[in-house]
Amino acid sequence: MSLIDIPHFLSTTRENQLTAEEILARCRALAPRLRERAEDIEEQRQLPPDIVELLRGTGVFRMAVPKAWGGPELDAVQQTEVIEALATGDASTAWCAMIGMDTPVYAGFLREDVARRLLADPDTVTAGAIMPMGRAERTPGGYRVTGQWHFGSGITHSTWVVGGVLVTRDGEPEPGPPGTPGNWRVIVAPVEDFRVQDTWYTTGLAGTGSRDYRAENLYVPEEYTFSFAAPRVTGAAATPDAVLRNMPGVPLGVARAAIDHIRLMATLRVDRASQSPWAEDYRVQTVIARSEMRLSAARYAVYGSLREQWEILEAGDTPTADEQVATVLARVNAFRTARSVVTELFDLAATSAVYRPSVLDRWLRDLTTMCQHVMAQDQVVQSAGARLLGGTPQNPYSVGIVP
Fold first, then answer.
1. What is the pTM of this model?
2. Where is the Acyl-CoA dehydrogenase/oxidase N-terminal domain (predicted)?
C-alpha cells in the first residue's frame, strides 16, 4: 500500500469490523509517514493531534476489544506485530499506541457496565501508571484518592487515566496478602480529573508526552477500581501481565528500522580513506550480518514465547514457571538487544550519526530511554530467576504474580 492510499483507508468508517490483517496493513502503510514526522513529534514532546487521528484510523487503539463486543480481538502475537510496524516509523508513536490500546485489557478487570462505558468509543485511549504511587482512603461507595504518578505516556491525548494506589482505612494502610506492601488497586478516572504536569524533558521517547499527573482528594467510585488478582473475564487477557505482552514490539521495530537504514546506506556510501564501496567492506558486512543475527534471535524468542503462552492460556491451562518466564526474559532481551544493535550501527556510521536530526541519533536515544523502563531492569531478570528456582521475586508483577 502506498502513501497516497493512506487518506483513503484512514477515512473508512470505524464501525466496520476490522481484521488483524487490515490493522497491520494500515500500520505498515502509516510507518513512512511517521518517519517523515518523527522530528516534529520529538520537538512537540507529544503526539500532534493529526498523528493521533491517523493512529485512531488504523484501528490500533481498538485492537484488543473482544469480538463479542464488535472488536477485532487481536492476540498477543498480532498486537506485537502491529506495534513493531509502527515503531519502524517512529518509536514515540508506537510507544503511545502500545500504552493507549490497553483500555480493553483494563475493562476485563472491571464490572461489565463500567467496562462498556469505557469502551463506548472502541478507539478510546487510556494512559497512566499502574504501580501504587497514590493512596486511596476508603469512603462510602468508593475511595478518596491522592497521589502523584509518573510516566503518563499518551496522557496528552487520552480519555481515561489509570493510577495504582495502596488502600488506606482511617489513614492507616490496609494489609494486603502476605509478602506484599499493602492492598494494591488500580483506579480509572477521566483525564479531566487529574492535574497534568509538564515534566517530560528527556533524552529519548520525547514525543510520548509521558508527563506526571496528580490528584488531590479525588472521589473514585468502587466500581471504577480493580485488582489484577480478580479479573471479570477468562482466557489470556485475564492475566495480570496482559498489558506487558506487546511491549517488545517497540524496540524490535526500532532496531529493524536501523538495520534497514544502514543496509541502504551501504549500497550508496564509499569509504573516504580507501575509496572502496561500503558494501564490499569486511567490517560493514560483519556488523550488518551480526545485527541481523542478533535481532532475528531476539525477535523469534519474543514471538515464539508469546504464541506458546497465548495458546496455553486460551486453552484454560496455567503456564509452567518455564513457560511464563520465557516471555519475560524474551521481553527484557528484546529491549537490550535492540539497544546494543543500534549502538553498534551508530558506531559504524561514525561521525555522520551524531548530527541532528540523524535518525540513528534519535533511535539510539529512544532505545536508551525505553531501556530505563522498570520492565527492562535487572530486578525483572532476578524475578524470573526466582520464579524458576522457587525464590522471592523482587518484582512479582513482572512475572505475572499478583497475590
1. 0.94
2. 27-100
